[in-house]
Amino acid sequence: MMKKIVILLLFSAFALNSFAQSEVTVAPEKNVLKVNTLSLLVGTGSIFYEREISDLVSAQMGVGYMGYTLGKTKFSGLILTPECKFYIRNNAIDGFYFAPYLRYN
After folding, report:
1. Which run of H or E residues covers position 50?
2. Which of 7-11, 65-69, 87-91 has the highest mean pLDDT?
3. Rounded CA gap, 105 and 65, in Å?
4. Which residues contact 62 (CB under 8 A, 6 or more apart)?
5. pLDDT tens track for 21-59
6. How would you classify the pairing of strands 44-52 and 31-36?
7. Rounded Cα gap, residues 79 and 48, in angstroms
8. pTM over 0.70
9. From CA 36, how far away is CA 32, in angstroms rounded?
């Protein structure tokens, strides 16, 4: 009787393991939020949001604040940077790209 119980437990353990091997697929990221922390050292700050539009194209919008002094000249204000990125390979948000952009200071 004990031998049958041990065999049944071993069989159950192997059966449960076979279900644990199923593959899980993860959807690729379509949004990226970027923060330029090093710019805080010179008195500016910026944050960018990028959204994948297709496999080859994404759009990015950046907002920042500039407030620093260089000699007797003071720079301050809001910065807006819309950008359209064109990726070389089919891996938008992750890869080499070229991007025309505008900047408002």
Report:
1. strand 44-52
2. 87-91
3. 9
4. 46, 47, 48, 49, 79, 80, 81, 82, 83
5. 567 777 778 899 999 888 888 778 899 999 999 989 999
6. antiparallel
7. 11
8. no
9. 13
